Amino acid sequence: MPNTLDATAWSATLLGLFAVAAAIGALRQPGAWRRMIDEIEKSPALQLVSGFMELFVGAAIYLGNPWVPSELLTCVMKTIGGLMIIEALAVMAISDLYFQIWLKTLAAVHRGWAIVTLVLGLALTVAGTMHFS
């Protein structure tokens, strides 16, 4: 039986769809991301759970995608997974500093972050679905 699971296509498509949905929610409800970051900043339990979830998803993306220089999407997904792991460790280790940086950034350019997230999510979704063929 041939291997029909394309981890790169699936991880790019699903991460892209997640980003698109999150961006649409943020554009529909301005300030939602800031409130979310505020809640996480105030709760050590949410910091730990958020960090663990991002670590888990980042590790799955990182480990599931090979580094194949001739395939740009595999390299992009492996890099995204690695960055997610680093961010997750920062959330768990220095959340007080990390969230202060995010709060200032989100307050200044909330709509901009949502639009960038939407564009990147669409790009990942398209690249992931094209990778299936």
Question: Features of this protein?
Answer:
133 residues, mainly alpha, 85% helix
Strand content: under 5%
Could you give the distance between the termini? 18 Å
Query: Helix share of residues?
Result: over 70%
What oligomeric state do the depicted chains represent? single chain
Specify Rg, calculated over alpha carbons. 16 Å
Give average pLDDT, whole number.
91
What shape does the CA trace take? globular
Task: Summarize the SSE layout with pairings.
Elements: H1 7-28, H2 32-42, H3 44-64, H4 72-93, H5 95-131
Quick overview of this protein structure:
The chain is an all-alpha fold and 133 residues long.
Word description of this protein:
With 133 residues, the protein is mainly α. It has one domain. The chain is built from five helices and no strands. The longest helix is centred in the last third of the chain and has 37 residues, at 95-131. The model has no long low-confidence stretch (mean pLDDT 91).
